[in-house]
Protein backbone atom coordinates (compact mmCIF):
# COMPACT_ATOMS: atom_id res chain seq x y z
CA UNK A 1 0.00 0.00 0.00
CA UNK A 2 1.35 3.44 -0.90
CA UNK A 3 0.94 5.83 1.99
CA UNK A 4 -0.11 9.47 1.55
CA UNK A 5 3.32 10.80 2.37
CA UNK A 6 5.09 8.76 -0.30
CA UNK A 7 2.63 10.01 -2.94
CA UNK A 8 3.29 13.50 -1.64
CA UNK A 9 7.05 13.03 -1.74
CA UNK A 10 6.97 11.70 -5.29
CA UNK A 11 5.00 14.72 -6.38
CA UNK A 12 7.63 17.09 -4.99
CA UNK A 13 10.45 18.31 -7.18
CA UNK A 14 13.75 17.75 -5.44
CA UNK A 15 16.88 19.54 -6.44
CA UNK A 16 20.37 18.76 -5.25
CA UNK A 17 20.41 22.10 -3.44
CA UNK A 18 17.39 21.10 -1.36
CA UNK A 19 18.12 17.61 0.03
CA UNK A 20 16.27 18.55 3.23
CA UNK A 21 12.90 18.88 1.49
CA UNK A 22 11.94 15.31 2.34
CA UNK A 23 12.01 16.29 6.00
CA UNK A 24 9.09 18.69 5.46
CA UNK A 25 6.41 18.12 8.06
CA UNK A 26 2.65 18.31 8.12
CA UNK A 27 2.02 16.02 5.19
CA UNK A 28 -1.29 14.88 6.59
CA UNK A 29 -4.04 15.90 8.99
CA UNK A 30 -3.02 12.88 11.05
CA UNK A 31 0.36 14.46 11.65
CA UNK A 32 -1.22 17.73 12.76
CA UNK A 33 -3.48 15.75 15.11
CA UNK A 34 -0.46 13.84 16.38
CA UNK A 35 1.32 17.07 17.33
CA UNK A 36 -1.79 18.42 19.02
CA UNK A 37 -2.53 15.20 20.91
CA UNK A 38 0.99 14.42 22.07
CA UNK A 39 2.45 17.84 22.76
CA UNK A 40 -0.10 20.61 22.71
CA UNK A 41 -3.36 19.52 24.34
CA UNK A 42 -1.75 17.83 27.37
CA UNK A 43 -0.03 21.13 28.24
CA UNK A 44 -2.75 23.56 27.21
CA UNK A 45 -3.76 25.64 30.26
CA UNK A 46 -7.35 24.81 31.30
CA UNK A 47 -8.73 28.33 30.60
CA UNK A 48 -7.41 28.09 27.03
CA UNK A 49 -8.98 24.65 26.63
CA UNK A 50 -12.28 26.01 27.89
CA UNK A 51 -12.08 28.98 25.51
CA UNK A 52 -11.22 26.68 22.60
CA UNK A 53 -14.23 24.50 23.37
CA UNK A 54 -16.58 27.48 23.67
CA UNK A 55 -15.20 28.94 20.42
CA UNK A 56 -15.73 25.62 18.62
CA UNK A 57 -19.50 26.22 18.92
CA UNK A 58 -19.25 29.62 17.19
CA UNK A 59 -19.73 29.79 13.40
CA UNK A 60 -16.45 31.70 12.98
CA UNK A 61 -14.43 29.08 14.89
CA UNK A 62 -12.02 28.55 11.97
CA UNK A 63 -10.64 32.05 12.73
CA UNK A 64 -9.20 31.10 16.10
CA UNK A 65 -5.41 30.87 16.35
CA UNK A 66 -4.45 27.20 16.33
CA UNK A 67 -3.34 25.69 19.65
CA UNK A 68 0.07 24.66 18.27
CA UNK A 69 0.74 28.24 17.14
CA UNK A 70 -0.50 29.35 20.55
CA UNK A 71 1.99 27.09 22.25
CA UNK A 72 4.82 28.52 20.15
CA UNK A 73 3.72 32.09 20.89
CA UNK A 74 3.54 31.38 24.61
CA UNK A 75 7.11 30.14 24.44
CA UNK A 76 8.26 33.25 22.52
CA UNK A 77 6.56 35.60 24.96
CA UNK A 78 8.30 33.91 27.87
CA UNK A 79 11.68 33.72 26.12
CA UNK A 80 11.77 37.48 25.59
CA UNK A 81 10.11 38.16 28.96
CA UNK A 82 7.42 40.20 27.19
CA UNK A 83 5.47 42.59 29.40
CA UNK A 84 3.94 45.07 27.02
CA UNK A 85 2.19 43.74 23.93
CA UNK A 86 -0.22 44.64 21.15
CA UNK A 87 -2.82 42.25 19.76
CA UNK A 88 -4.52 43.06 16.45
CA UNK A 89 -7.54 40.81 15.81
CA UNK A 90 -9.03 39.34 18.97
CA UNK A 91 -12.11 37.33 17.87
CA UNK A 92 -13.07 35.25 20.98
CA UNK A 93 -9.62 35.75 22.48
CA UNK A 94 -7.64 32.51 22.25
CA UNK A 95 -4.35 34.24 21.38
CA UNK A 96 -5.21 37.12 23.71
CA UNK A 97 -5.78 34.82 26.67
CA UNK A 98 -2.61 32.86 25.99
CA UNK A 99 -0.69 36.17 25.89
CA UNK A 100 -2.27 37.29 29.15
CA UNK A 101 -1.34 33.96 30.74
CA UNK A 102 2.23 34.14 29.38
CA UNK A 103 3.28 37.64 30.44
CA UNK A 104 4.50 37.91 34.02
CA UNK A 105 1.90 38.24 36.74
CA UNK A 106 4.23 40.44 38.76
CA UNK A 107 4.44 43.02 35.98
CA UNK A 108 1.37 44.82 37.23
CA UNK A 109 0.77 47.71 39.58
CA UNK A 110 3.71 49.94 40.39
CA UNK A 111 5.85 48.60 37.57
CA UNK A 112 3.06 49.26 35.11
CA UNK A 113 2.67 52.82 36.30
CA UNK A 114 6.43 53.47 36.21
CA UNK A 115 7.28 51.91 32.86
CA UNK A 116 4.35 52.24 30.58
CA UNK A 117 4.39 55.33 28.41
CA UNK A 118 0.63 55.35 28.06
CA UNK A 119 -1.81 56.82 30.59
CA UNK A 120 -1.40 55.03 33.90
CA UNK A 121 -4.79 53.33 33.62
CA UNK A 122 -3.68 51.41 30.50
CA UNK A 123 -3.18 47.66 30.73
CA UNK A 124 -0.25 45.57 29.54
CA UNK A 125 -1.89 44.16 26.43
CA UNK A 126 -3.51 46.56 24.00
CA UNK A 127 -6.04 44.35 22.20
CA UNK A 128 -7.80 45.83 19.18
CA UNK A 129 -10.82 44.53 17.32
CA UNK A 130 -13.89 46.31 15.88
CA UNK A 131 -16.04 43.36 16.97
CA UNK A 132 -16.65 43.49 20.71
CA UNK A 133 -19.39 40.86 20.54
CA UNK A 134 -16.99 38.02 19.80
CA UNK A 135 -14.55 39.25 22.47
CA UNK A 136 -17.41 39.06 24.94
CA UNK A 137 -17.85 35.34 24.19
CA UNK A 138 -14.42 34.66 25.68
CA UNK A 139 -14.46 37.40 28.30
CA UNK A 140 -16.04 35.37 31.15
CA UNK A 141 -13.27 32.78 30.76
CA UNK A 142 -10.61 35.52 30.71
CA UNK A 143 -12.16 36.96 33.89
CA UNK A 144 -12.30 33.55 35.57
CA UNK A 145 -8.61 33.04 34.71
CA UNK A 146 -7.86 36.25 36.65
CA UNK A 147 -6.05 38.06 33.82
CA UNK A 148 -8.61 40.61 32.63
CA UNK A 149 -6.72 43.41 34.40
CA UNK A 150 -3.81 42.90 31.99
CA UNK A 151 -6.00 43.66 28.96
CA UNK A 152 -6.99 47.00 27.50
CA UNK A 153 -9.56 46.02 24.85
CA UNK A 154 -10.15 48.74 22.26
CA UNK A 155 -13.20 48.33 20.06
CA UNK A 156 -11.89 49.78 16.81
CA UNK A 157 -10.16 49.22 13.53
CA UNK A 158 -6.48 48.79 14.35
CA UNK A 159 -4.84 51.39 12.09
CA UNK A 160 -6.25 54.52 13.79
CA UNK A 161 -5.32 53.10 17.20
CA UNK A 162 -1.73 52.45 16.09
CA UNK A 163 -1.54 55.92 14.55
CA UNK A 164 -2.80 57.44 17.79
CA UNK A 165 -0.19 55.53 19.80
CA UNK A 166 2.48 56.85 17.43
CA UNK A 167 1.40 60.44 18.04
CA UNK A 168 3.06 60.08 21.44
CA UNK A 169 6.81 59.72 20.85
CA UNK A 170 7.16 57.98 24.20
CA UNK A 171 5.37 54.94 22.79
CA UNK A 172 8.00 54.40 20.11
CA UNK A 173 10.06 51.29 20.81
CA UNK A 174 8.16 50.67 24.03
CA UNK A 175 6.41 47.36 23.23
CA UNK A 176 8.03 43.94 23.54
CA UNK A 177 5.73 41.95 21.31
CA UNK A 178 2.88 42.28 18.83
CA UNK A 179 0.61 39.67 17.33
CA UNK A 180 -1.26 40.38 14.10
CA UNK A 181 -4.19 38.19 13.11
CA UNK A 182 -6.65 40.47 11.33
CA UNK A 183 -7.38 41.86 7.83
CA UNK A 184 -4.61 40.58 5.57
CA UNK A 185 -4.87 43.62 3.27
CA UNK A 186 -3.37 45.75 6.05
CA UNK A 187 -0.52 43.45 7.10
CA UNK A 188 2.12 45.73 5.53
CA UNK A 189 0.50 48.82 7.07
CA UNK A 190 0.55 47.11 10.48
CA UNK A 191 4.15 46.03 9.92
CA UNK A 192 5.32 49.60 9.28
CA UNK A 193 3.61 50.98 12.36
CA UNK A 194 4.52 48.10 14.65
CA UNK A 195 8.16 48.40 13.64
CA UNK A 196 8.09 51.83 15.27
CA UNK A 197 6.16 50.72 18.36
CA UNK A 198 8.07 47.50 19.10
CA UNK A 199 11.55 47.86 20.58
CA UNK A 200 14.75 46.66 18.90
CA UNK A 201 14.97 43.00 19.91
CA UNK A 202 11.18 42.77 20.20
CA UNK A 203 8.97 40.48 18.13
CA UNK A 204 6.12 41.02 15.70
CA UNK A 205 4.29 37.81 14.83
CA UNK A 206 1.91 37.53 11.89
CA UNK A 207 -0.60 34.69 11.56
CA UNK A 208 -1.93 33.06 8.37
CA UNK A 209 1.14 33.77 6.25
CA UNK A 210 0.72 30.52 4.30
CA UNK A 211 -3.00 31.28 3.78
CA UNK A 212 -4.14 27.68 3.67
CA UNK A 213 -1.24 26.75 1.37
CA UNK A 214 -2.59 28.99 -1.40
CA UNK A 215 0.57 31.13 -1.47
CA UNK A 216 2.28 28.25 -3.27
CA UNK A 217 -0.61 27.56 -5.66
CA UNK A 218 -1.34 29.19 -9.01
CA UNK A 219 -4.01 31.87 -8.68
CA UNK A 220 -6.43 29.96 -10.94
CA UNK A 221 -6.45 27.09 -8.43
CA UNK A 222 -7.59 29.36 -5.60
CA UNK A 223 -11.25 30.01 -4.78
CA UNK A 224 -12.52 33.53 -5.51
CA UNK A 225 -13.13 34.39 -1.85
CA UNK A 226 -9.47 33.70 -0.97
CA UNK A 227 -7.80 35.49 -3.86
CA UNK A 228 -7.59 39.04 -2.52
CA UNK A 229 -6.14 38.06 0.86
CA UNK A 230 -3.79 35.60 -0.87
CA UNK A 231 -2.41 38.47 -2.98
CA UNK A 232 -1.91 40.61 0.13
CA UNK A 233 -0.18 37.78 1.96
CA UNK A 234 2.14 37.09 -0.98
CA UNK A 235 2.98 40.80 -1.16
CA UNK A 236 3.58 40.81 2.59
CA UNK A 237 5.78 37.68 2.47
CA UNK A 238 7.85 39.11 -0.39
CA UNK A 239 8.27 42.43 1.37
CA UNK A 240 9.33 41.10 4.78
CA UNK A 241 11.69 38.59 3.18
CA UNK A 242 13.92 41.49 2.05
CA UNK A 243 13.27 43.87 4.95
CA UNK A 244 16.67 44.65 6.49
CA UNK A 245 15.12 46.03 9.68
CA UNK A 246 14.09 42.55 10.83
CA UNK A 247 15.15 38.95 11.09
CA UNK A 248 12.41 36.52 10.12
CA UNK A 249 11.30 32.93 10.45
CA UNK A 250 8.22 31.69 8.59
CA UNK A 251 7.14 28.59 10.48
CA UNK A 252 4.53 26.13 9.14
CA UNK A 253 2.71 26.19 12.46
CA UNK A 254 -1.07 26.40 12.06
CA UNK A 255 -1.76 28.45 8.94
CA UNK A 256 1.77 29.84 8.84
CA UNK A 257 3.30 32.04 11.49
CA UNK A 258 5.91 34.64 10.49
CA UNK A 259 8.07 35.73 13.38
CA UNK A 260 9.82 39.06 12.82
CA UNK A 261 12.52 40.24 15.22
CA UNK A 262 13.28 43.93 15.00
CA UNK A 263 17.01 44.46 14.66
CA UNK A 264 17.19 48.17 13.82
C1 LIG B 1 -8.66 35.53 12.64
S1 LIG B 1 -9.60 36.46 13.77
C2 LIG B 1 -8.52 36.62 15.15
C3 LIG B 1 -8.38 35.33 15.93
C4 LIG B 1 -7.71 35.48 17.26
N1 LIG B 1 -6.30 35.72 17.13
C5 LIG B 1 -7.94 34.23 18.09
O1 LIG B 1 -6.99 33.60 18.53
O2 LIG B 1 -9.11 33.90 18.29
C6 LIG B 1 -9.59 38.02 13.01
C7 LIG B 1 -10.19 39.15 13.82
O3 LIG B 1 -9.72 40.36 13.23
C8 LIG B 1 -10.71 41.32 13.39
N2 LIG B 1 -10.46 42.41 12.45
C9 LIG B 1 -10.84 42.50 11.15
N3 LIG B 1 -10.45 43.67 10.63
C10 LIG B 1 -9.79 44.32 11.61
C11 LIG B 1 -9.16 45.60 11.70
N4 LIG B 1 -9.11 46.41 10.65
N5 LIG B 1 -8.59 45.93 12.87
C12 LIG B 1 -8.61 45.11 13.93
N6 LIG B 1 -9.21 43.91 13.91
C13 LIG B 1 -9.79 43.52 12.77
C14 LIG B 1 -12.00 40.55 13.16
O4 LIG B 1 -13.09 41.26 13.75
C15 LIG B 1 -11.70 39.22 13.81
O5 LIG B 1 -12.19 39.18 15.13
TrEMBL record:
Concerning InterPro entries, the annotation shows:
Cation-dep_OMT, SAM-dependent_MTases_sf, SAM_O-MeTrfase
Q: Which SUPFAM superfamilies match?
A: S-adenosyl-L-methionine-dependent methyltransferases
Alphabetically sorted, this entry's keywords are: Methyltransferase, S-adenosyl-L-methionine, Transferase
Please indicate if the UniProt record lists Methyltransferase as a keyword: yes
Q: Which Gene3D superfamilies match?
A: Vaccinia Virus protein VP39
Cofactor or coenzyme needed? a divalent metal cation
Family annotation (Pfam families): Methyltransf_3
As for family, the record states: Belongs to the class I-like SAM-binding methyltransferase superfamily. Cation-dependent O-methyltransferase family.
Q: What is this protein called?
A: Probable caffeoyl-CoA O-methyltransferase At4g26220 isoform X2
